[in-house]
Structures are given as C-alpha cells and as structure tokens.
C-alpha cells in the first residue's frame, strides 16, 4: 500500500514507527511525501503535458519522496491515471527476486517477468501503462514523480475509462484527467493539425 502524507509531523511519526517494526516475511507499506523543492528531470519536464499548458489548480504528482522499508512488496499494478514515472533512488535498493516472482505467479504459464534493480544514484523512466510491482530489498528512500506523457494519451484515456468502469476509489485517481487532456487537445494538438493542413495546401 502506498500512503501519501502531507503533514510532515505525521510523516516523521509514521516513518519512525514503520522502520522500527520487526521485519516480517513481507510487508506492503510505502510512505510518500510531497516536496516542492525537488527538481524534476529535464526529460520529464519536456514530455509532461501539464508543464506545456496554461492550467491552474492542477493536482501535484511530480515531486515525491517515497520511503519503503526492507521487504515491502507491492501488488502488480499500473500507476494511477496510467501516468509515466521517473523514480530516482537516493539510498537503498529495490528489485525483485526469484522467490518473490514465485510468490506472485507460482507456475502460471505465459507470464514473463523482467527484473530491474535500482540502486542509489539510479534514475529509471517508466512509460504509462507498464504493469509492474516493486520489492524493496533494503530500507530505501527515492525521489519520484508521475506525469501525463504526451506520447501516451490513448493509454491514459483508456486507463481513465477503466477507472470509471470499476468505480476506483477517488484517492487513487487523478481528478483533472479530462480537463488536462482537453486542454492539451485545444492548446497543442489542434495547432499541430492546423499547421499540417496549411503545409499540405501549399
């Protein structure tokens, strides 16, 4: 489970309690804190739909510090809103192992799992729509963020429809999906189409 925390006092208390817990076989807890001072990587800013638009009052998902204790394990999932992500490991490591893969899938046929190990200093870009799970090998801290990718519009809208159809909890949805995509269409895509049409008419 990923818990977003906005109160730093609450975070410190939960963080101490979390990391002082005796380590079991597996746990499923991560804590995330929004931090405005985080610098977003250039490639993420360039591809972010929101960064290129004139929008107000848009939820902030691009600057998070994520803390995970050793043996934390997530379910397989797609990030909410089908957003792309760009985690940067600052300490610790996250990876999967054969035993963890066996726990997830057992002997199911046709399932291929690729392993990516992130260690301190690494940055990883994951396009929207990638089904993934995370196993935290040791107590870890990462700077991360999610953003709507200009190259993943169709997947993002399909994910939105799926979230509506299954009545996903509002805590795990982006409230401005439609306004953001509509603004991108009117402010960016229509201009590109119009320019292309004028070029073809010459």
Q: Which range does the strand content fall in?
A: 15-25%
Form type: globular
Percent of residues in helices: 25-40%
Low-confidence spans: 1-7, 96-101
Looking at the structure, the CATH topology is: Jelly Rolls
**Number of helical regions:** 5
The CATH class name reads: Mainly Beta
CATH superfamily: Cupin
Which structural category fits the helices and strands? alpha+beta
Radius of gyration over all CA atoms, rounded: 19 Å
N to C succession of SSEs = EHEHEEEEHEEEHH
On the 0-100 scale, what is the average pLDDT? Answer: 72
Per CATH, which architecture?
Sandwich
Adjacency order of strands in the biggest sheet: 1-2-3-8-5
Characterize the biggest β-sheet. 5 strands, mixed
Overall number of structural domains: 1
Number of strands: 9
Gap from first CA to last CA: 56 Å
What report would you give on this structure?
It is a single chain. By secondary structure, the chain is of the alpha+beta class. It has a single domain (2-201), classed as Sandwich (Jelly Rolls), CATH 2.60.120. It is 32% helix and 15% strand. It has five helices and nine strands; from the N terminus they run E-H-E-H-E-E-E-E-H-E-E-E-H-H. It has helices at 8-20, 42-47, 98-105, 153-165, 177-201; strands spanning 2-5, 30-34, 64-68, 84-85, 88-91, 93-94, 118-119, 140-144, 146-147. The termini are far apart. The model is unreliable at 1-7 and 96-101 (pLDDT under 50).
């Amino acid at each position: 489970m990923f818990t977003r925390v906005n109160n730093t006092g609450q975070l410190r208390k939960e963080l101490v309690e979390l990391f002082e817990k005796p380590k079991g076989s597996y746990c499923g807890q991560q804590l995330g804190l929004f931090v405005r001072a985080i610098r977003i990587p250039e490639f993420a800013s360039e591809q972010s739909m929101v960064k290129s638009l004139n929008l107000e009052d848009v939820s902030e998902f691009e600057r998070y510090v994520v803390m995970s204790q050793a043996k934390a394990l997530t379910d397989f999932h797609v990030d909410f809103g089908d957003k792309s992500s760009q985690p940067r490991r600052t300490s610790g490591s996250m990876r999967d192992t054969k035993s963890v893969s066996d726990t997830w899938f057992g002997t199911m046929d046709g399932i291929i799992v690729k392993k990516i190990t992130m260690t301190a200093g690494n940055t990883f870009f994951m396009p929207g729509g990638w089904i993934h799970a995370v196993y935290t090998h040791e107590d870890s801290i990462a700077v991360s963020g999610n953003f709507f990718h200009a190259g993943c519009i169709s997947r993002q809208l399909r994910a939105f429809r799926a979230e509506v159809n299954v009545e996903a909890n509002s805590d795990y949805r982006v409230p401005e999906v439609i306004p953001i995509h509509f603004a991108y269409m009117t402010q960016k895509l229509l201009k590109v189409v119009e320019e292309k049409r004028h070029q073809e008419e010459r």
